[in-house]
Hints:
It is a single chain. The protein has 277 residues and is α+β, with helices and mostly antiparallel strands. Helices cover 43% and strands 21% of the residues. The strands form two sheets. Strands 1-2-9-4-7-10 form a six-stranded antiparallel beta sheet, with helices on both faces. Strand 5 (51-55) and strand 6 form a beta hairpin. The chain is globular and about 55 Å long. The relative contact order is 0.14.
Amino acid sequence: MAAIRPRSTVSAWQPPVPGIAEVFHARFTDHAYPAHMHDTWTLMILDGGRVDFALDRERHGAGVRDSVILLPPGVVHDGRTVTEAGFRKRNLYLDASVLPESLTGAAVDAPLLLDPVLRERVHGLHRALGTRELPAGAVERLEAESRLAFVRERLHRWLAGRAPAAYGAPGAGLAVRLRELIDARVTEGIGLEEASAELGHVHPTHLIRSFRTAYGLPPHAYLTGRRVALARRLLLAGTGPAEAATAAGFYDQAHLTRHFVRHVGISPARFARSGRV
């Protein structure tokens, strides 16, 4: 009889610590993230297994050891399990107050940081942040803020010293303008013809090709990712799955669930429960 794989598990919450948008702990036995991007930095350590991911069209592999994975905002990436045992990870989603977007190019050049000191600092920060069942109190919050300061210092030391050229896809001006239109209308959306008219009556297929060339995914996939990210924030804030679905621009809860499972690894309902004490 074939062995039964353990169920994938997720625990996510919003800590009361400035600079940290979300804490996300997960065990995935068989999951593949679609190509997507975040508007935050993703700081990840692995506690078991291996993960394979592409960042800006270049593939990387990482195991536990002493590595820390840092994925910058606004850059397409994916991720997938590579062993039957899957992998266990702890993520922190950090905003621009922790790391400025000017360091994006350095992170694209070197997303794997082989630094045992940094890994230990990130581990200590997770411990100070507590769990969703035992949120950080006043003392723990002060400790977490202190530990975040040392994590930030170490990350700056890694990235600022590389001095790479500024990150940006060549000829991305049209794509950037389309992305700005999508970002301004995440919930209501924008049609291709309307976007084409607003951008100077650019031919729709040229618009799509420009966006895919610049960001590595088509406009509709980018919009779906933004809507999933919005639903994710709403769910952690206590909004029910059905309400979060319509507030984020999906037709209904089933429509949200289909895309949410692909992007996050579990259903919106399970994700919402993971953030409640």
